[in-house]
Specification:
Structural class: mainly alpha
Helix content: over 70%
Radius of gyration: 29 Å
Distance between the termini: 24 Å
Number of strands: 0
Length: 380
């Protein structure tokens, strides 16, 4: 087996489009720009990064249609290649059974899965080193490489969870600020409504029930503002909306299935079962069972990928509609101001603008979270 199969695959694919010399230059240029070690074996995520560079060049030279078609077909082929070829793994030096430091009590519970995943990855790396040094175990090397890739994918999964946890916390801070700002706009409108109803009541109009209800709502809103305004920076509510424009083509994220930790774990189990079965590997019960487990893991990973892509598309469409409403309300407020409209009409528009903007930000945040998760599946 090649020591750098993904680099070889990449050069072969790029040579068809660019020529052998240009393909080599494209790969070396991508490596240098990213500061990767020159002799490091490439993995599928590295290949995706290089393909993106070549895609940008092809769009300029051949146009979007041909470049898009090329990238889609090449990415799908890469996903199929990743199903058969483990990433060349560097063994971890040291004894097979490491002596990890004791975990201190009081550590946050969500830190523990990442610590455990890193320990498993270290053990897998040391096991691979031992297997490569023992001639009697050389036939087990491929299964051990899948094991290394699976444990590293599990580390990546929990690192992604940690990143998303921090991102969600930042998003929550802005979303609470939006709600407080909307409540402040509502308080302003309710105050004007109360004043208007009081004038109507003094004029003898039958508005007692409506006035009492409006005063009640004004009091509730004031209590909310008193409790939450000190907890946030109201200026956060004026942070511009994040308008992400990204291609959510399924083919672009096709690597999310073969690189899913559960799929890699099942592929390792299949290779291990084949090694145990020896010459009768194809028909051995444990091999058949492991093959079924791999198929089930692939289906589950595909369902998860489709679900995340579907949610991202829904958030993207909702954000687009809400952003258009925000712009329309901004134009409406400006128009009312220029025409010297009454304060009540302006307050109504400002409240609606705040409410729609709050909803738009929620969609923008959910879209960003989905995109960060998708990118973590396939990016370098």
């Amino acid at each position: 087996m090649s020591a750098d199969p993904y680099r070889d695959w990449l050069k072969a694919r790029l040579s068809v489009e660019l020529g052998v010399r240009e393909a080599e230059q494209a790969v070396q240029g991508a490596i240098q720009r990213r500061g990767w070690p020159a002799l490091r074996a490439l993995g599928p995520r590295d290949v995706v990064a290089v393909l993106q560079d070549v895609y940008t060049l092809m769009r300029d030279e051949y146009g979007d249609a041909r470049a898009d078609k090329w990238l889609e077909g090449t990415t799908l082929d890469l996903a199929r290649f990743a199903e058969t070829m483990p990433v060349p793994a560097q063994p971890t030096p040291g004894p097979i059974a490491p002596a990890p430091r004791a975990v201190k009590w009081g550590r946050r519970a969500h830190d523990l899965p990442l610590l455990l995943a890193r320990s498993h990855a270290e053990i897998a790396g040391r096991s691979l080193a031992a297997i490569r040094q023992n001639p009697d175990l050389r036939a087990l090397e491929r299964a051990a490489e899948w094991d290394c890739q699976a444990t590293q994918a599990e580390v990546r999964r929990w690192e992604t969870e940690e990143m998303l946890s921090k991102l969600r916390a930042d998003h929550a801070r802005l979303e609470v600020a939006d709600q407080v700002a909307a409540a402040a706009a509502q308080s302003e409108l309710l105050g004007l409504n109360v004043a208007e109803l009081e004038e109507a009541a003094q004029a003898g109009q039958p508005v007692a029930g409506q006035l009492a209800h409006t005063r009640l709502m004004a009091g509730q809103t004031a209590a909310f503002l008193e409790a939450f305004t000190p907890l946030i920076d109201l200026n956060d509510a004026d942070t511009p909306l994040t308008m992400l424009s990204v291609d959510l083509n399924t083919a672009r994220f096709s690597l999310g299935v073969p690189l899913h930790p559960n799929v890699l774990r099942a592929r390792h189990a299949l290779n291990y079962a084949q090694w145990q079965a020896g010459d009768a590997s194809e028909n051995a019960p444990q091999v058949v069972q492991a093959g079924r487990a791999l198929h089930a893991a692939q289906q589950e990973a595909q369902a998860q990928l489709d679900g995340t892509l579907g949610a991202a598309r829904a958030h993207q469409a909702a954000l687009r509609d809400l952003a258009a409403q925000v712009e329309a309300l901004e134009r409406r407020a400006l128009q009312l101001s220029q025409l010297g409209s009454d304060a009540l009409s302006l307050a109504r528009v400002r409240l609606e603008w705040r409410q729609v903007r709050t909803a738009a930000r929620v969609q923008a945040h959910r879209l960003e979270e989905a995109l960060r998760l998708l990118e973590a599946l396939v990016s370098e």
